[in-house]
Amino acid sequence: MLQMKKLLLLSGLAILLSACSTDSDFNERLHRGTITRIEVEAIGDGNMESYNLDFEYDGNGRISLLTWRDESDFEQIAIKYGNGTIAFDNENGTHYTAAVNNKLQVTQMTEAVFGRERTLDFTYSNNRLIATDAAESSSDLTKNRLLWGGQTGNLEGFKWMWGDDPKEVATREKSTMLYNTEAISKINLDINWALYCTEGLTFAAGDPLCNYVFGMQGYCGEKNNNFLTYLKEERSGTGTAAHTTHSYTFKYIFDAESRPVQIKRTREGASEITIYTLYYKY
């Protein structure tokens, strides 16, 4: 249940924020708005779900605790920071460990559960994440490719590729994104990654926690400059499964300090609406 709700919060695509290169960089962003809570209401097919995600930070401005709450469930995820590492466990017992370089970028991530491990290697260009690939030591053949706009500085395209063997690796999902280039982000987390997370972009078998811990904090290169307004997802069916396409629009309400306080996500051609309400420390 919680896993589905976390994916809902990120559904519609997932990954990353500006690199927190120094403590002074983070302190400067504090005055532009530190997110402390995201409240979510999802309405569709006559049903409504609501839940909260609370953020707590350590003395260095890093997320130290994530708390999920709804009327019946409660979950807390503690994040541990070491010398060049970040680690945490999800509610299913999966352990995640990331290696971080001197630019504070994740270079490799390993997930371990029930004695099995999967490792992804991260590749950057011009301080932006452009690819994640299953390590050669892994039997997993997952590949992700990210396309950044040279003029806008936003993530504009994504491909998730997978196959049972190297000869069958093919694009299974791709996304296209558009942004409001007149609205500049002035908050500490890249909220876009809580709006556009696909199965592939959750890095770790559909677990969005990696997007929060690594992506929203800026451990995967520079953040998007603007706010997402449109997302198109295309998924290629396998076997008898059909090819599907979903499109979403996003509308924002900003406060007097140009921070988004409410985001409305609408799925085109369907009675599906999600409302995100953001709360700030400052």
Written account of the structure:
The protein has 282 residues and is mainly beta. It has 3 helices and 17 strands. The chain has a 17-stranded antiparallel β-sheet, with helices on one face.
Q: What's the gist of this structure?
A:
Helix content is 9%, strand content 48%. It has helices at 2-10, 23-30, 209-215; strands at residues 35-44, 47-57, 63-69, 74-78, 80-82, 85-89, 95-100, 106-113, 116-125, 128-134, 143-148, 155-162, 170-180, 227-235, 244-254, 260-267, 272-280. The chain starts with a helix and ends with a strand.
Show the helix and strand layout.
Elements: H1 2-10, H2 23-30, E1 35-44, E2 47-57, E3 63-69, E4 74-78, E5 80-82, E6 85-89, E7 95-100, E8 106-113, E9 116-125, E10 128-134, E11 143-148, E12 155-162, E13 170-180, H3 209-215, E14 227-235, E15 244-254, E16 260-267, E17 272-280
Antiparallel strand pairs: 1-2, 1-17, 2-3, 3-4, 5-6, 6-7, 7-8, 8-9, 9-10, 10-11, 11-12, 12-13, 13-14, 14-15, 15-16, 16-17
Could you tell me the mean pLDDT? 81
Q: Total number of β-strand segments?
A: 17
Largest sheet: 17 strands, antiparallel
Indicate the percent of residues in helices: under 10%
| Form type | globular
Strand content: over 45%
Distance between the termini: 32 Å
Structural classification: mainly beta
Count helical runs. Answer: 3
Helix and strand sequence? HHEEEEEEEEEEEEEHEEEE
Low-confidence stretches: 8-23
Radius of gyration over all CA atoms, rounded: 18 Å
